Amino acid sequence: MTANADAPYKTYTVDGYNSVTETQTAYLPYKTITKIGDEALLTPTDFTLLDDGTMYVLDSGNKRVVVGDSDGNLITTFGEGTLVNPKGIYVTDEHITYVADRDAKSIFVFDENGELIHTYGRPDVPMYGDALDFLPLKIVVNSSGTMYVVCESNTNGIVEISPVDDGTFLGYFGTNATNASLWTIVWRALLTDAQRAKMVGNIPATPDNMAIDEKGIIYTVTRGEGDDTIKRLNIAGVNMITEPGKSDTVPAAIAVGNHDNFFVVSQQGFIYEYNNEGKLLFMFGGKDDGQQRIGLSTKAEAIQISSDDKIYVLDSEKAQIQIYEPTEFTDYLHEALYLFSKGRYEESKEPLSQVLMMNNLFDYANMAMGMALYKEGDYEGALKYAKLSKDNDLYSDAFWEIRNTWLKKNLSTVIIIIILLIVLKNVIIVLDKKKNILKKPREVIEKIKNIKLISQLRYIFFYMRHPIDGNYGIKRQNKVSVLSANILLVIMMVFYIINKYFCGFMFKTVREGQFDVISDIVMILTLLCLVVGCNYLMCTINDGEGKLRHIYCSFIYSASPFIVFMPFIFALSHAVTYNEEFFVSFGRFCMVCWIVVLVFIAIREINNYSVGETFKIIGLTAFTILIVCLLAFIIYVLWSQVFDFLQSLFGEVVYRIGG
To answer: Could you give the CA distance from residue 185 to residue 199 in angstroms, rounded to a whole number?
Structure first.
């Protein structure tokens, strides 16, 4: 049955912020194969599609293998009378068929004519495990004939069997790791042996499915493994996917593509396409809700990719194969993906340009274009595309090259300017000593310093260096005022907002072009009111000497390091690469530590507490803030319910009146 239709699903990708976002359709439903010739399928569980278009379907319900072409025309069937409960199939380019039969506890091998030529049973060696049964579910075979078998309930890993001597057990491959939280480790250490025996064992999970590429690299999917759901294992069994993209929680199968990419299908029919580094390119498909819409699945079991990049998905419940064809957008992306992975960056620019013409917000294409330009030495262009794709690594490398080029051209000029400025400063100092040329500027500056409000604002420099005396000045000498504290608060909020939205690209934590200044101001003021109010309440109850005005001013002045150092940290964030990121991080760390120390001293000195009493007040303040937040949440929930009730009541009244 051939049925061309618009996609009954949406297509998604992952942007540079690691958020799922909708993109244009990558694959369209092309055809549905419900029968192979006149042969109907019954609960098929696996299939293999060869490069010549030959398709081998494991018709598990009928205990046979059905062979057809890519259009669904029947070629032959075999395996009747031999297979018991087949679960997995793999076919080599020479049309040698391997079938994993769970209930027969065997691997059956058929030749190109469908004749049984070998049977491999349970490895009869101690290393396999005396208590382990041999219940093969899935199988792949490398170019030398070595078989990799996933067995039910075998948590040691993938069983590796050589065809030599009627099947030699080579060991286990790609074993999944076990994960145990610190709490689990501590808890198990406290239990008795009898109690530990009753606990669920912490054993590695068995892979659900696997695939193999022409280089012999094994791809596996395992449900419930988090970041290790998808693995790309080299010959040593090491996972080469270091930064995995988003994956499904219930993967069913995996297949290797033609452009250094691979595909995963979930049981619900969602299809994921990744590049060879595990970065998600597309996600589409979905579960059929009973309307029998083409392109949606009920229970996906297997996935294969044809030589012309069509995707074939086997649905065991519908007993059919869904076929998807790539759109023009995807064809261009695949071409660029292949050229880029082979290091042919100049050639990859043309298809990448076509992709970006269709969707200039597709982050992977922007990243690839930026990398291509970087390899060519166009660092300005690479920097532009790195920002578009939110690729911090590429941005850092391109910026380093640009900065290095600028320094080579201008370093001597900068040094000369610095020397001239130093000489000019010394000349002015000498002239001032002889002719007092700076007398009037000094008088003006002195008058400005003596203005009360300016003096109060300048007090932050004294407060930072002498916090004990500084708090005495706030409490006893009125060195500051609420007005000066309010001005400093406004300055801090301005610095915070500027740093949040305009700091260096690598240190930005918000989306480019996204501004929410009102929320930032409300958050800062709410937090300040909570801290000051709760602290004042606790200090009043516990015989503190500080007034509300003193506590508020001391807290604001304790944030002086933020006002003094944030401009320098902000400027530094625009001048460093990943190699010098430490300077920005260390500067922020020192600034925060300084503020914490100043706040601690402020609470102690303003209220005349001991060190122990100060720690007690800090704990009580934190607890009070928690209680206030909890009460606010409860009130919010109650008012929401009251509002919903009034809204429903109003709607009912309007309905009755209208009736």
So the answer is: 12
Is 229 within 8 Å of 246 (Cβ atoms)? no
Question: What are 473's two structure tokens?
Answer: 């000045």
Residue type, 590: C
At 559, give phi and psi (nearest 5°): -85, 15
Residues near 93 by beta carbon (within 8 Å), at least 6 away in sequence? 50, 51
End-to-end, the C-alpha distance of the chain in Å comes to 52
Nearest CA to 211 among 255, 248, 244, 173? 255
> Residue for token digits 């069983």?
159
| Cα separation, 568 vs 576, whole angstroms | 12
Enter the tokens of residue 493.
Answer: 């909020």
Q: Mean pLDDT by 10-residue block, N- to C-terminus, for the chain (659 residues)?
A: 63 85 90 89 94 93 92 91 94 95 95 94 89 92 93 90 89 81 69 66 82 92 86 88 83 92 93 90 88 85 93 93 92 87 83 88 87 89 89 90 90 92 90 83 85 92 93 91 94 94 87 85 93 92 90 94 94 90 92 95 93 93 93 90 86 76
Q: What is the pLDDT of residue 200?
A: 57
What are the C-alpha distances in Å from 438 to residues 158, 429, 443, 497?
83, 9, 9, 38
User: How far is the C-alpha of 86 from the C-alpha of 100, rounded, in Å?
Assistant: 6
Q: What are phi and psi of 412, to 5 degrees?
A: -65, -40
Residue 319 CA to residue 421 CA, distance in Å, equals 82
The model's pTM is 0.80
The dihedral formed by the CA atoms of 101, 103, 104 and 107, expressed in degrees to the nearest 10: 20
**Alpha-carbon gap, residue 390 to 16, rounded angstroms:** 5
Characterise 229 by phi-psi region: left (phi > 0), alpha (psi -120 to 50), beta (else): alpha
Say how far apart CA 338 and CA 335 lie, in whole Å: 5
Using an 8 Å Cβ cutoff, are 9 and 295 in contact? Answer: yes
Per the DSSP assignment, residues forming a β-bridge with 20 are: 14
Which residue in the block uniquely carries the two structure tokens 């379907």? Answer: 57
CA 260 to chain centre: 21
Confidence (pLDDT) at 197: 62
Which helix (H) or strand (E) covers residue 284, if one does?
A: strand 280-285
